[in-house]
Hints:
Radius of gyration: 18 Å
Order of helices and strands: EHEHHEEHEHEHEHHEHEH
Bound molecules: zinc ion
Structural class: alpha/beta
Largest sheet: 9 strands, parallel
Amino acid sequence: MNPPDPELLSLNTITVRERWNLREMIEGCARHRxxxxxxxxxxxxxxxxxxxxxxxxxxxxxxxxxxRGGMFPAAxxxxxxxxxxxxxxxxxxxxVLEARCLVLVVGGLPPGSKDLAGAREMVRDGIGGVLDHxxxxxxxLAIEPLHPxxxxxRACVNTLAQALDLCDELDRSASGAxxxxxxxxxxxxxPLLRTEIERAGDKRLLxxxxxxxxxxxxxxxxxxxxxxxxxxxxxxxxSWMEQAGYRGFQxxxxxxxxxxxRRDPDEVLATCRMRHQSAC
Length: 280
Ligand code: ZN
């Protein structure tokens, strides 16, 4: 199969979060001819959304997503309301950036709770509670299923099938207002992956995150591999995405406290570009 289009490489900025601020990330992407960028909200707040939007547009970059909204479940009504308010602000920031989507890491169990079904209902109600605002702002909401090892503390939506069931429930007509992120790190193991990518189709495939699964994995959160260094068949998953109609960016998202976060970000970006061509 053909190598991926280099124009469709995007940088999820967590990949270089330890050493660069958002302005340096934007300028780094431009320097390395990486055409997409996906900022995180902490760095965005430091720079200011309007200033960031100006710098991103000035460098001709596409914002492939804003990370992140979500975290809906909470122990009480006040907590759930605070989460909704935070998501409304995130939607507004995503609109200023003209982001292709707001990524939702939906949240896990409220502290002390064992009610997983209840947490999943709070997720559904939370997304439902901000969907009208997202629609009118023109910001698609992208549910990112996370690997089940994060079910308790980060996301109780763990498979693409589960995320798509939520989409069906919240947006029956598949308008594109809510869809999914396919992050290979979280879903590569799923025997239903191909079927569910096909089911999602181009309307609901809002983002595609790439990295690799290392064997062994030293840390559950911050030991992701560079594409090509692990066991994920990235070209195969890309072919499924393309067959389903996805024409968007491939966004490199690597959390790596022991390796890539320690390196010179210019080296990291150069490696991302190279591996995008040789391993994806
Ligand atoms: Zn991701």
